[in-house]
Amino acid sequence: MPKGTLEVLLVCAKGLQDTDFLSNMDPYVVLSCRTQEKRSSVASGQGTTPNWNENFVFTISEGTTALKLKIMDSDTVSQDDFVGEAIIPLHSVFEAGNVPQQAYNVVKDKKFQGEVRVGLTFKPEGGHGHHSHGRAAGESHSGGDRGYGGESYGGWKESSY
């Protein structure tokens, strides 16, 4: 199994099942990779189509096979509601080094609950990824997702001709 760093770009979600009946839900995501857990910001009032555009960095060690995204609805009065989860197998990003943004199914009790869009980059330990610790990457997304879209499609454009 590979060791290194996994960079996760949490872009957005759509078609989520709304857990709030009187107002728009306030979704956030808990990302976990084995024992590491990170949490996105709350997309306040964004309901079933939240946008995050946030970067997260995980240290990958032996035996890591999947990234789990648990989507929650932040509630001020009661306990946060579980919306659904997506489990992303990591073998393809370990082999390719990069998986462009794509949608993954969000499931709850074996039922489809919408989808979450994520981009993945893996930098092997001892490779050329030692200069990045994710500090700047997490804060440099002020330009919205336009920059990421260009990067994602750049590879496709070159390979199609």
TrEMBL record:
What's in the keyword line of the UniProt record? Answer: Calcium, Metal-binding
Where in the numbering of this chain does the C2 domain appear? 1-103
Q: Name one Pfam family in it.
A: C2
Which InterPro entries does the record cross-reference, listed alphabetically?
C2_dom (IPR000008), C2_domain_sf (IPR035892)
Tell me a Gene Ontology molecular-function term this record carries: metal ion binding
Q: Which residues form the signal peptide?
A: none
- Show the SUPFAM superfamilies listed in the entry: C2 domain (Calcium/lipid-binding domain, CaLB) (SSF49562)
Name the domain of life. Answer: Eukaryota
* Positions of the UniProt region annotated as Disordered: 122-161
Its recorded name reads C2 domain-containing protein
Per the UniProt entry, what species is this protein from, by scientific name?
Citrus sinensis (Sweet orange)
